[in-house]
Amino acid sequence: MASSSRVEILNEGGLRVDGRRPYELRSVSMTFSPQAHADGSATMQQGLTTVTVSVFGPREPRSRANAIHDRANLVVEVGVAGWSQPGVGQRNRGDKRLTEVGATIRQTFEPVIMSHLYPRSEISIYVQVLGSDGGILPTAINATTLALIDAGVAMTDYITSLSVGLHLTQPLLDLSSPEESDIPYLVVASLPGTGKVTLATLETRIHVDRFEEMLAVGVEGCKILKAEMEGEVKKRTGTMVERMKLNALPDRAGGMKDSDRDILMT
Amino acid sequence: MLQVISVPPIPLFHADDVTAEFSKTRHHPDVQDDLDSDMDVDDEYGTGLGVGSSSRAGKNITSPGEVVTSAKEFMRGHGTYTEGDNVLSTVAGTIERVNKLVSVRSVRQRYNPEKGDLVIGRVIEVVQQRWKVDTNARQDAILALSSVNLPGGVQRRKVETDALKMREFLAEGDLLVAEVQSVENAPQLHTRSLRYGKLRNGLLLTVPPSLIRRLKSHFHTLPPPCGPLGVDVIMGVNGYIWVSVSVGERNNAAVEGFVDAEGVYSDVNDDISQSSRLAISQVANLIMLFARYSIPLSDTLLSDAYAWCRDNGLTKSGQMMDKEMEKRCLTEITGMDVREEL
User: Fold this and answer.
1) Domain B109-197 is classified in which CATH homologous superfamily?
2) What residues of chain A lie within 8 A of the CB of B57, using their CB?
3) Is residue A21 within 8 angstroms of chain B, CB to CB?
4) CA-to-CA dists, residue A176 to A11, A140, A167, A186, B235, angstroms
5) Nearest Cβ partner for A22 among B13, B110, B301
6) What would the mean pLDDT of B252-263 be, rounded to a whole number?
7) B291-311 residue pLDDT tens
8) B239, B249 in Cβ contact below 8 A?
9) CA distance A148 to B65
10) B157 or A234, which is more confident
11) Is A105 helix (H, G, I), strand (E, B) or coil?
12) Same CATH topology for B15-106 and B109-197?
């Protein structure tokens, strides 16, 4: 197993650099509405990769030229915090790679957002990478899904995304940064409900025989991720619905009683 | 850590790991118990329609892409779409059913204007014969020159000179309270009531629109123990809230048919005493506190909260509440266990 890389992708025991097995995902955590001023926002953490996404809209387009008469216009901007990864300085907004990530996110979400419900409007998605340890794009896509749900934007399904690497003939799920720099990988985004794939990008070359297998594992992984996200979304929605009922409580101690009111509905 | 177990036939490194005992994902033991109880509820939603059958909130909560019901028996309403024989949800929220119409109401959404809503807006553009007003909605609302009351009488005709003086009445950045007149094409506003018009002597708050119910009246007053003159709170259905010094006297004047024309479109704040400012800030802080915990706002809730602050000696000292105190306040006022912010 002569490899030119410094790190051993899979050791004798079949474990990866960070001790995971080939199909083991990194731990995930999600936070809703970290940005109170946005219409919807979410932070998604997969392993050490942290991405916060804020969604504004549907709102009046900032410039008339951006209005589309029969559907909403999707605008995605990506920023990377200077401290997010070691050895890389501040990347500015004009960075080609970031623009491409933004364009990819926009293309991924366009078929799923029901934009015809919001004609002449704009939905702005601001992606901020706070910590980067491989898989910026998949984590950004997952965070965007959560932020859009938080904003109440109509979507036909979740979109979840994962990276799938290939080590010799073995697919590896959810790569971390050292793995990402050493082995070829594919980014898959899919609609877990139907198993449809909205995104599959590959920057390096792999053998065509391996592709199908990698895609299948990726789609399967996306379903697992969706189950996790759905659990969190429902938990939060449930709590919010509970809170919404508060107003309907019978008169509270110290509260204004009906008999104290000037006007009564009978 | 999560692990995918069911995968297509691929050479697995550790096929022995895959036993029926494993669930698809594994969690830290501390988290597991918590999740187990959630998952039970999950299963109960099922694909059947639990609408109306139970008052428990968990029962009819859906999220995007989830099958709500069969399209053969039900019609789809807002927040849903049909695919094949099924009606699916497009937002995270609660399922609601009216006869054969099934809709999903999102818990958080941008303001959707409806005729008759009381809204607070900010002028962002002055154009030919009309103002464009930001009302926190999907599109800017239009306030036509013909639908405002101008100085010099309610029934006065609008003349060309008025069109040239539009910026004197309402300029970019001015805040106003108005009513939604119609929502065809772009939403239209009007201020044809003495209660509506330009706002001053206060401060604007923004909360999620879902926290404000459509009520008979959105003008609330917290009477004088709250500041020397009392504090007015206007809760716009669009989630904008205006907290200001009470203008009780002005309304009285209006009733007598006397309108201070210059005053209505004045830009200048009155002199506001220190204690009034304190009261306004305290009421504003309370509103933001409710908003942070996603508690729907009402006048009784607000006056209860203010009374609570007074009883605990906060109003006099002007002291801010810390986290512990905030939670105690909410728990005592709402009688509900509110631990986490949302």
Assistant:
1) Nucleic acid-binding proteins (2.40.50.140)
2) 238, 241-242, 245
3) yes
4) 16, 15, 14, 13, 49
5) B13
6) 49
7) 888 888 888 888 888 888 888
8) no
9) 13
10) A234
11) helix
12) yes
pLDDT in tens, B208-239: 898 888 888 888 888 887 878 889 999 999 99
Nearest to B320 by CA among B291, B269, B284: B284
Distance CA(B1)–CA(B172), nearest Å, equals 53
Give the integer Cα–Cα distance in Å for A41 and A35. 6
Which value does ipTM take for this structure?
A: 0.82
Read off the tokens for A206: 């792999």
Residues whose CB falls within 8 Å of the CB of residue B63, separated by 6 or more in sequence, listed in order:
A149, A158, A230, A233, A234, A237, B89, B91, B92
- Give the residue extent of every domain in chain B: 15-106, 109-197, 200-342
- Give B217: exposed, middle or buried? Use CB within 10 Å, 0-12, 13-18, 19+: exposed
B274-292 and B299-311 helices cross at what angle (nearest 10)?
120
Burial class (CB within 10 angstroms; exposed 0-12, middle 13-18, buried 19+) of B156 = exposed
Sheet holding A49-59, edge to edge: A28-32, A40-46, A49-59, A122-131, A73-80
List, in sequence order, every beta strand (DSSP E) within B107-239.
118-127, 130-134, 141-148, 175-182, 188-191, 197-198, 202-206, 219-222, 231-235
> Which of B37, B67, B82, B138 to probe the A interface (max A CBs under 10 A)?
B138
Contact between chains at B304 and A234 (C-beta distance less than 8 A): no
Closest CA to B106 of B87, B92, B88: B92
Mind listing the domains of chain A with CATH numbers? 28-245 (3.30.230.70)
Token pair for residue B234?
């206007």
Provide the CB-side half-sphere exposure for B249 (13 A, CA).
Answer: 5
How far is A82 from chain B, CA to nearest CA, in Å?
28
Assigned token pair, B171: 């300029």
Residue-wise pLDDT for B58-85, tens only, equals: 568 999 999 988 888 888 899 999 988 8
Say if residues A165 and A183 touch (Cβ distance below 8 Å): yes
Domain covering B15-106: architecture: Beta Barrel (2.40)
Q: Distance (Å) from the C-alpha of residue B2 to the closest C-alpha of chain A?
A: 5
The two structure tokens encoding residue B88: 């699916």
